[in-house]
Each structure stands twice: as structure tokens, then as C-alpha cells.
Amino acid sequence: MSNRTVSNAAQLQARIAKGWKPNRYLSNMSMATFNNPGDYVATRIFPICPVDFSTGFYYVFDKGDLARDNVQRKPAFGKVNPAIYGHSDDTYKCEVDQVIVGIDQINATNYNRAGVPASIDPRRSKIRFITEQQLLHLDILFAQNFFKSGVWANEYTGVTSNPGGQQFLKFTDANFDPVAFFDARIREIKLEGRRRPNKLCLGYDSYTALKNHPDILERVKYTGSSANPARVNEQVLAQLFGIEEVKVLEATYNKAKQGQDDDMDFICESDGALLCYTTSTPQIDEPSAGYIFTWDMLGNGNYTAVDQFEGEPGTHTEFVEGLVSTDMKKTCDDLAVYLKSCV
């Protein structure tokens, strides 16, 4: 070991003893409060339908004609009149939304030379930020177009007493009968929409109220053991209600504008619920309560895209861009019911 190395080590120890702290950042952790990727639901409830053009039409066949018995007794030496079933059309329009963040190339040189952790690398971190922004934006669009009061024609409201008409006792009321209530809503959708609903989307507080409801707890209390105590989760609720999937909508976002104090909230109404029938993929001869039409605005087959481009000459900047193009559209009111003020 050289004398210079020993001298430098001694100087370093002396500086640390006086209170100096090395300004090296940890390379194996950072604090970045991104949402849990599994919390995002926009693309997991309604089927995604890629389209070739940003706007267009689709057929809507008349339910009454399809459900009517058109078979008649054939008259002797004659024939029955041809059966008629009609259709109309509806439209979609995929708008393009964009987000851009900038990178100061001169300032980024310091990070590159210092060998900083990947979490703070200007390019990597901002691409991660753009991706998160796209997922966040899609969930906000989902909430605006599907998961709120006033969207669906069939809507019920939770009340604290004496429910009537399109009302029900709140999930937090011990007298509320969750299984009977959802049985009735399933019957309505099956009768009007000709499909049994297969998905129940629950706001965070609605889910919490249901899983702690005494009637639900009573039904599952003997299903556990000392090693595996009984507990209510999404799968248990799905089995009790006879539904394929129960999904809790728990992604969060900051409602405050830039410069204001943070105002965190759930993206989807935490006291809401949506019971619906959807297909897993687009179908020619199958209805769905809603669809997410997507358009590849850059012609590369992706409705979300991340790109990088140089700034103006002399600015020594570059930008990371995120694009997303969708139309989240309600397509069949008969296949859904929205529940508001559940708690």
C-alpha cells in the first residue's frame, strides 16, 4: 500500500470523525411512491378492441328482435312471412392524450460520470415516470367513463333506512342482506341483458364493508382452521355471489394541482360498486357492457407509446414523450348496474 493511499485513508477517517458524511447514494433502494402495478384496473375489466381508424362505427342489433320467437306454423301449401331483425349503429372516437418530460443533457452528464443508481438515472427514471403516468391516466378515464354515478341507466343508491325503489341499505348496515341483494341484481341483468353478470368491481370502502359484514362472516366462519383461519377476500365474495371475478379498485392519485399540498384519494369512487357482464376479448356476436377502443396513433400496433426526441439546437435538451389513444365507451346499459353510496 502506498504512502499516499494511507494518507488519504487517514484523512477520510479524520473527516468522518468530524461529522462529514460521504455523499454516495445507495444503489439497491430508493423511495419512489409509484402505485402497485396490480392496482391499476382500466385494462382488466372491459375488453380492449383495437381499431384501424381513430373514429368509426359498429353495429348494434335489436335485442327485442333477437329475443322474439319468430318461428310460426307453416300453412298448408304456403309459407310463413320472413322474420325480420333490425340493427342500428353507434360510433367510437379515440382521442390522443400526451405527456412530456424534459432532460437537461448537460446536467445529466454529472449523473452519468458519477455512476449513480439506476433509480435516479435521468433517462431511465423519466421513462418509468411516463409509463406510470399512462397507467394512471387510463384508470382516471376508466373512473370517468364507467365507475361513477350518472353513467349507467340502471343505478341504485345506498340509504340508511327504509329503502324503496332504486335504493338499498348501505353495506355497513347489519340488516343489509348482501347475498339476496346481489341475487336480485344478477336476476335483473340476466333478464334484461340475456347474460349473467361475471364481474363485480368494488370501491375500496365498499369492499371493506362487505368483507366485514356480519352476514358474510357468518357464512364463512366454519371454513377455516387453526393453521388457515377463515378470511374473506375477493375470491370468497365471488363464490358467495356466484360471480366469476370480484375486483377491488384501489389505485390512488393526487388530486392537487402543481404547487398545492398533496390531496391523495382513490381514483375510483371508494363507496361505489359496478356489477356487469363483459367479454374477455372483442366478439362479433356477443354483447358487453363496455368496450375500450384503442387506436395505434403511430401505426406500430400500440395504443400506448413512449418516444424520445431532441430539443431545439443549442438548448442541450431532450424529451421523453408518452402517447395514449383510447375511447372507453359504455356499449350496453342492460348488462350493468351501478351502486352508489354503498357505505
Describe the structure.
- This protein is 28% helix and 26% strand.
- It has nine helices and 15 strands.
- Strands 6-5-15-11-7-8 form a six-stranded mixed sheet.
- It is of the alpha/beta class.
- It has helices spanning 3-17, 42-45, 63-67, 105-114, 122-145, 178-193, 204-211, 214-220, 234-241; strands spanning 48-51, 55-61, 87-93, 95-104, 155-159, 167-169, 199-203, 245-249, 252-254, 264-266, 273-276, 290-295, 304-310, 317-330, 336-340.
- The model has no long low-confidence stretch (mean pLDDT 88).
- It is flat.
Question: What order do the helices and strands come in, and which of them pair?
Answer:
Blueprint: H1 3-17, H2 42-45, E1 48-51, E2 55-61, H3 63-67, E3 87-93, E4 95-104, H4 105-114, H5 122-145, E5 155-159, E6 167-169, H6 178-193, E7 199-203, H7 204-211, H8 214-220, H9 234-241, E8 245-249, E9 252-254, E10 264-266, E11 273-276, E12 290-295, E13 304-310, E14 317-330, E15 336-340
Parallel strand pairs: 1-12, 5-6, 5-15, 7-8
Antiparallel strand pairs: 2-3, 4-14, 7-11, 9-10, 11-15, 12-14, 13-14
What strand line-up does the widest sheet have? 6-5-15-11-7-8
Distance between the termini: 71 Å
> What structural class results from the helix and strand content?
alpha/beta
Radius of gyration: 28 Å
Classify the helix fraction into a percent range. Answer: 25-40%
Q: Topology as H/E string?
A: HHEEHEEHHEEHEHHHEEEEEEEE
Got a strand count? 15
Question: Beta-sheet strand percentage?
Answer: 25-35%
Q: Characterize the overall form.
A: flat
Low-confidence stretches: none
- Overall pLDDT score: 88
Helix count, DSSP H or I runs of 4 or more residues: 9
User: Main sheet?
Assistant: 6 strands, mixed
